[in-house]
Amino acid sequence: MTIETAIAMNRFGLGARPSGTAPDSPKDWLKSQLGQYNPEPAALAGQPSRADIAASFREYQLDRKDRRAAVKSAASPRMEDETPQIDPAKIEKVVNSLRAQYVAAADARMESAITTDTDFAERLVHFWSNHFAVSVDKLPVLALAGDHEFTAIRPHIMGKFSDLLFAAATHPAMLLYLDQAQSIGPNSALAVRVAARRNRELGLNENLAREILELHTLGVRTVYNQDDVTEFARALTGFTVGGMAKGPLQRFLAANGKDGDSQFFPGIHEPGERKVIGRRYSQQGEAQARAIFSDIATHPATARHIATKLAQHFAADVPSPSLVARLEKTFLESGGDLPKLYRTLIESPEMWLPKQAKFKSPWDWAVSSLRALNVRELPNNRQSANIMAQMGQPIWRPGSPAGYSDTTENWAGGAALMRRVEIASQLAKRSANRVDARQLAPRILSGQIGKLTTESIARAESPSQGLALLLLSPEFLRR
Amino acid sequence: MLNRRFFVASGVLGLGAAVFPGVGWAAPGTNKKFVFIIQRGAADGLAALAPTGDPDFLRARGEQAEEAAAGTKLDSMFALHPAMTESAKLFVLKQASFAHALASGYRERSHFDAQNILESGADRPYGREDGWLGRLLTLLPQDDAKGLAVAPAVPLAMRGPVSANSYAPSRLPDVDPDLMTRLTGLYAEDAQLSALWDGAQATESMAGAPADQTLKGGAALGQMTAGLMQGPNGARVVMLETNGWDTHFQQKGRLNGALGQLDALIGSLRDGLGAEWTNTLVMVATEFGRTVAFNGTGGTDHGTASAAMLFGGVLTNGGRIKSDWPGLKPSQLYEGRDLKPTMRFELFASEAVAQHYGLDPVKTRAKLFPDFA
């Protein structure tokens, strides 16, 4: 095994496994993964459908409505036996069931990451899932976040960026997370009707429109302004989620919607021509937003933004301008053909420098540790969601649509390091009777491991301590 | 560029008279403590500190304006949100002061750029790699410069030449002390890891927190933080992070919760610090405010100016609200939608810490916000 193999496995992939055979050509091995990648691996089978998730969620909403009714009636004088019953235990049960769906999806994600043979492609899934981040601290997203990654991200990472963008941005988890599901054209048919009948204004929410331009495509401080955000928000009205909206919109959708799925309802779409970044869009209905999506997906600012993020994730916190420029060129020339982008990355000399420039994120470190030890379960049967929360990178919960940061200073912290020490100790204790750190170290860190680490492992007081030192070594904490 | 209309907060926030040491920065420890609480996600200053005395507020906010009137009336112009009961008590005791219609120099509406500027103190996003709290540490006597962030890693605001620690409670089992010793050796040749490891061990031993501690809720966070600030080795400059402020949707209930948690955090810091509260200044600030009008979904979108808060027993003459109120008529709004900023965060923050530590305000501002013209 050469240092190139170690780089292919640890920097491009999710971490070397002792059981894996070293490929003859690291570059060919990486490229072959682009074809062999399976968007629906066995580890992800058996996840609930969107309709199932929506059904659980709707039960929660109905309960809340009952609860509000109960509070109202308690405030007004009435006979005691007329007060509707509220059942907090039932509400808790529904929230627990949503949480259980989240925990199961997070465990499936971890299992897929640990068991996959195409771990460069799997890293790309994680990269794109974080690029199009949703966050489960918002309750409607809790059970849908896994579905977002499994059904919107995974099937599209080997296609065109424009298709990935559309799928990720219009998935119900995203529409709910960034408030698009409730956004209504102020002059749409529904808004006009409600305003006339109930003297109540329904209207726009510009959250998703802004984050698509700022985070998903063009990038902040580029070519758009506040007017573009508002115009794009008007064009996006119509995209909503069946069975999970609220208020008059929910009553309107109840008759039309497929529960838990994204759909476009012309009745809430803002009529008229839109102007976004200097272009006019006179299409009707859904076609209008699709045309805007299509243009911004291939915009030069988007090419630059995606090239920079990809280089930063794989090569260095501050990637070399030559690498970014090469990726940008590939993106522009191919119209955002993602496998071409990945091939450019593989062929770039900046990716193969011996220096380990990236400090592993907690997710990277946990996955690579489990792969190195060839185990599938976390210590004390802890759930992936629980362990990752302890480590400061809870799965699908970055708390912001920008996703998790990809730079060292956000992960290299004293408290964060202490968590790794605690978890490495637990992992090492369980694997020490079957894995010898002295043999494992050169297998997984070939050409990367230094003298001090080799000596520290050799001098460890026990097999378990040796393994812990390996997982905590500077060479294993970085990639 | 500094607009002349921007107020200098000097002397009006209720901190005791500033004492500027005549010579240099080196001085014996002062026992002074400073806590910076960042509100990530753009907190709505118009809800926290509602301008109920402005007749246009009712027109602009409708139902929410009526709710705000149920809060604690602080003066003829402003009412504190009803969920902030502890803060209201502190205001009456003159241990709280607020500033309104304040913003950093940032005028776009990206959370991430704006938080970067609020933390770095630079004049443009990603313009600096260290933060204003980190630079503050370089101005303090060694004993006072013990920085700690309650977070897995040190946030940008506290990064700088003086190494600060980070602490986050853990429910994981403790580690064998022999492994800890060996890691010190393993990291000996790695400058980054050895610095992190030394800091992590020091904070861990000081925390002495029960293994099962979690950070659910503002009261628990405040209690734990106060514990980390106790004693001669306790942290003196602390940064805490709060979120839940990005209220695009159904703002009323969500802000009620978030402001209630913030209020409980302030209250438990006061209780937990005990006698040390008299040496403590707490600052609360956010990256920008929110639109004056509600959006179509019962929430507010990204805006410009917001409110900032100071608390602490060190405020001997607080109970003040500093604001050059810009008004809420459509023509008075920034870009026709946001509360117009009339005070700069950079001035507010540098004045407050300069007075707190008895530092020269001009030199302090130059150090903390060197790009601020």
From TrEMBL, chain A:
Top-rank taxon: Bacteria
Protein name: DUF1800 domain-containing protein
Pfam families: DUF1800 (PF08811)
InterPro entries attached to this UniProt entry: DUF1800 (IPR014917)
Region (Disordered): 14-33
From TrEMBL, chain B:
SUPFAM superfamilies in the record: Alkaline phosphatase-like
Database matches in InterPro entries: Alkaline_phosphatase_core_sf, DUF1501
Name of this protein: DUF1501 domain-containing protein
Species this protein is from: Sphingorhabdus contaminans
